[in-house]
Amino acid sequence: MNPHGNTTPADKDKGGPRYSRGDWQTLKTLFPYLWRYKARVVIALVCMVLAKVAAVTIPLVLKQVVDGLAAKPGAMLAVPLGLIIVYGLLRLASTALAELRDAVFAKVGQNAIHRVALETFEHLHKLSLRFHLGRQTGGVTRDISRGTRGIGSLLSFLLFNILPTLLEIGMVTVILVTMYDWRFAVVTLGTIVAYGAFTIVVTEWRTHMRRTMNELDSSANTRAVDSLLNYETVKYFGNERFEAARYDEAMEKWEKAAIKNEYSMDILNSGQSGIIAIGVTCLVWLAADGVVKGTMTLGDLVAVNAFLIQLYSPLNILGMAYREIKQSLTDMEKMFSLLREDPDIQDLPGAQALDVATASVAFRQVDFAYDKRRQILHGVDFSIPAGHTVAVVGSSGAGKSTLSRLLFRFYEADGGAVCINGCDVRELTQESLRAHIGIVPQDTVLFNDTIYYNIAYGRPSASREEVVEAARSAHILDFIERLPDGWNSTVGERGLKLSGGEKQRVAIARTILKNPPILIFDEATSALDSKTEKAIQAELLTIAANRTTLIIAHRLSTVVDADEILVMDEGRIVERGNHRQLLAQGGIYARMWALQDGLEGDDEKEADQYPDTVAAAADS
Question: Is this prediction's pTM over 0.85?
């Protein structure tokens, strides 16, 4: 069960949810995870009740033992011995039932933590690219870590401290009212009410301090993670001291908040101890006065004292438990807020699952803007027949990579439609759509794992032979086999142990392994040297054969064999045709060709074939 709510556009624009969740709402959200094991929950609660009944009965048995000894000192082995045995059995039962309760409930609590953490992880992957571009990774991971720990604390203190303590207080109060002077119950309840009120008021006051600590902790962690992820950049500019100063500034703020939090806890503990001391003193005085006046026996005094001892510990636990519960709820607040964050892109009800061997792609008068104040695409219209290759070229910021993001449905078109086999991608399930598309991005990011894992990631179920063949096709097999650890070589954080060209060849290999009917090469060879690029270019042509392929490129030499080339400028298609046709037009493409390496090597043939056009383009 995933109790998602709604967020407003304003929330999203600010980089994440800004609303707060009530404590009861948080508990309501957690309940279904516990009730999955309702039998275990019921058994645990029964054990808890029986354990407290045994604990409350102990002072009553102790009273009988003392009164028996006082009345018949000569018969101490005949009369009280049975009660002493009962006393021991009750103590054993109280402890054993509490342990049994914990054992029965262990699976419930740990499974709840497991499922909430998993669901949060899965939900983060469901959230749209827009969310992840604005997130702070260090802060998010810390929120999840604190939230899952908070679940364990909440369950432990709420179910096995707060409820048992309240139950025990209720039973003791009933016993005091029925067996002793009403003043015992009044003092007991008065102490509990005063203790509870003081605890709640001060804890509520402290809650904002805890929340501030969490915010500052996440901020410091975000700065640390961001700095370490950009280790090379820090070194390039010699900014180690600058980064340390930024981290120190964040930690200094956290330190001040933590000190305030400790001071407030000292105030809370001192006040609780004072209330308990006053209540206990009054009860002992009443019991002693009763013994002196003859209205209470010595056993009654011992029983009242035993009740006080039993209430003293739970009350201390009650205060600590309430503090921990409030802190746990605060810690869980952000994690559950992540679960309430709705994806921008969602499957429509009744969305179809795409299952085709070949596919055509069409952009029909597509308009799009990342920010409504700045339009990126204006009426883009083109199609890629099944098995054909279309290349898109143009200056940076022309909107080329946006096409691949719309096709992959990271974003949805503001106007027009993106279609596969004539069907709007919005009518298809995201999972099936993306299973049919393979992409080699310009900026390749790898997992901090082995090189084998990163290539096999294209299709985790692939055999080793298929992985090796994909590496061979991407011209990276020889490199892998020369590594000291071979396939088991780790690539480092984000693949930083590999060069840009090596990372890109890994990306090509895993896309080959995926074997989709639609391919997107987004500057797929931009990080390769000319020799390697030419070798892989031939392989890419083989891979693209009989597949629908979209190539996004700056280097025009990589698109000369495309069936159609689109030239984009400021979000519009301004030229289209094949390589020869575009050179003949003498427009933007021809000028781009002249400014690049198109006049060198094999491409000089094009200059011979179109001497006037290319010369004019070069002169311009």
Answer: no
